[in-house]
Amino acid sequence: MVEAQPRPIHLPPGEGKAFWLAADLHTFKAVGEDTDGAFTLVEITAAPHSGPPTHVHHREDETYYILDGEFEFLDEDRAFTAGVGSCVYLPRGRPHAHKNAGGTPARALVLTTPAGIEKFIEEAGEPATDPSSPPPPPGPVEFVRIIIIARKHGVGLAVLQNRLLRALFLTLSGLLAVAVLVVVYNRLRRSTDADFAFRRWVPWAR
Hints:
globular; alpha+beta; 3-stranded antiparallel beta sheet; Jelly Rolls; 2 domains
């Protein structure tokens, strides 16, 4: 039996599925489905002076090639700046972060090996119907949602490696879940009370 081989792909400039994740625009150039799981290639456009919090990839290595602007990188305790033409390799398992160091959007190609990070971006992000109009920064509820999805895909916040902070996060997540359930319950109860009153006074609706 002959195994199916990955097929060549060609994407013109500006093409590819795009998602907002926080303030970064991620445009997929090649994903696991295209490369038989070998790698994912994403073009990121980072808003001025923004970037994700320090985090750890447990499944993928990352390689950045800077296209426009300057990025500040944090690799464990080492911080450095990378400009156009720079290549930055970040192996899995190390706390790291990137941030746009300038006042204009910065772009980079990000190669992750093996593929799979695109599934996290798709689930946690928001489809970019207008790449020129970023969504507002995530609030506390949205931030917790992203963290939970990230953990499912092997990405963890570095601060949550600390047991005390992890316990605090889980406690806050539990309280948030309870608050959401209370809101849903109250809405359902009001809806049920209104339906009962309607059926009581309108006989034909029974």
